[in-house]
Write a structure and sequence with these properties.
The protein has 337 residues and is of the alpha/beta class. The chain has helices at 10-38, 45-54, 88-93, 124-139, 174-190, 218-223, 257-261, 271-286, 301-313, 324-328; strands spanning 73-77, 95-105, 108-111, 164-170, 196-197, 203-204, 208-214, 230-231, 233-234, 252-256, 290-294, 318-321. Helix 4 (124-139) packs parallel to helix 5 (174-190).
């Protein structure tokens, strides 16, 4: 189902989406409880009534329950704007990395795979900045119990220290789009939610780590102080042309799987491909840089799952997925890779 944003009321849609998420989580919890109690003769009717009513009682309302019970998984939501609900779909399965293609037209950053897919309502602000900010504010509520200032919990309640990588893939001119990207990020930066590098190269890890890719200008990333937009490094040249790149500039490096390895026959890399993978993992990790390969085999499913499994086993940090549920391990297709 797709939700259209009425231009004068973008926050109404945001409220609608987050409310639906809450209702869905509550419905799932109640459904699970009902199924368990129905199957258990040991739970008396009075106790069932107490437990059922507890879900609506203020005493059992948890302030940061929006993402309660969602465990982070090491997957990257490729082309995240194609999801039924961009950002939220990835959040619901625990993805720790998402990606948005942005296009600058008439002083506005739009999100989509190509120009013909852009709409006035689908902007970087409406699809990503506002929803992310809303979730983080929910995970960091004001409290009289805070004695050391504001908190900076991440989007996942079960792992508050986990950063969410937000890849911003600039599709139009990078230098022209750059100031608009920085301006769009200001609400997150001002709230202290963005990972930063200061002028002494000290990293402060925060709930969101922004990684510029596509036409993002490396020179502008390097010159930013403090730096709160990082650069998607090139895996294939980390030991040559880009050997001077460090994790302070590129915490993550990526490359096209098909171009890098060629065709995969069967369910795993051949010896030559595996040797290349191991060499690239070694080079990147020696620099403290994480790896992500995109454009992996999508079919047959056995090949896809086999490559996912092998990449993770060999130390690849983010598994690039188009099928979120399968990537998170929820799908029964492929026997839970």
């Amino acid at each position: 189902m797709q939700y259209a944003i009425l231009d004068p009321y973008p926050f109404l849609q945001l409220l609608f989406i987050t409310t639906n998420m809450y209702i869905f989580n509550l419905f799932s919890t109640l459904t699970t409880f009902t199924a368990l109690t129905a199957c258990s003769s040991a739970v008396s009717p009075p106790l069932q009534q107490i437990l059922g009513n507890a879900y609506t009682a203020p005493l059992y309302t948890y302030p940061t329950s929006l993402t309660q019970d969602i465990l982070p998984v090491l997957i990257h939501s490729h082309n995240d704007y194609w999801r039924p609900l961009p950002f939220y779909s990835a959040l619901s399965v625990g993805a720790i990395s998402i990606e948005a293609d942005v296009w600058l037209y008439n002083d506005t950053l739009y999100v989509g795979h190509e120009p013909s897919a852009l709409t006035p309502e689908r902007t970087f602000e409406s699809l990503y900045i506002d929803p992310i900010l809303d979730v983080l504010n929910r995970q960091n509520p004001d409290s009289s119990f805070l004695t050391e200032g504001a908190t900076h919990n991440g989007v996942y309640d079960a792992a508050a220290e986990q950063t969410l990588h937000v890849f911003v893939d600039i599709k139009t001119d990078g230098a022209e789009a750059w100031p608009y990207i920085l301006d769009a990020l200001q609400p997150l930066y001002s709230a202290g939610y963005l990972s930063t590098i200061n002028n002494t190269n000290q990293l402060t890890s925060r709930p969101i780590t922004v990684v510029g890719t596509g036409n993002t200008p490396l020179s502008l990333v390097q010159s930013q102080t403090p730096r709160y937009v990082f650069f998607d490094g090139p895996i294939r040249t980390l030991n040559s042309t880009f050997s001077n790149i460090t994790s302070q500039i590129s915490p993550i490096a990526s490359t096209n799987f098909a171009v890098n390895f060629g065709t995969v026959l069967g369910t795993s890399l051949n010896d030559t491909q595996l040797a290349l993978l191991r060499q690239q993992v070694t080079v990147a990790h020696a620099k403290g840089i994480k790896l992500r390969y995109w454009n992996q085999p999508a079919w047959p499913i056995s090949t896809r799952n086999g490559i996912w499994r092998q990449l993770r086993t060999e130390g690849v940090d983010l598994i690039n997925v188009d099928d979120l549920e399968a990537g998170a391990g929820f799908s029964d297709v492929g026997n839970y890779w």
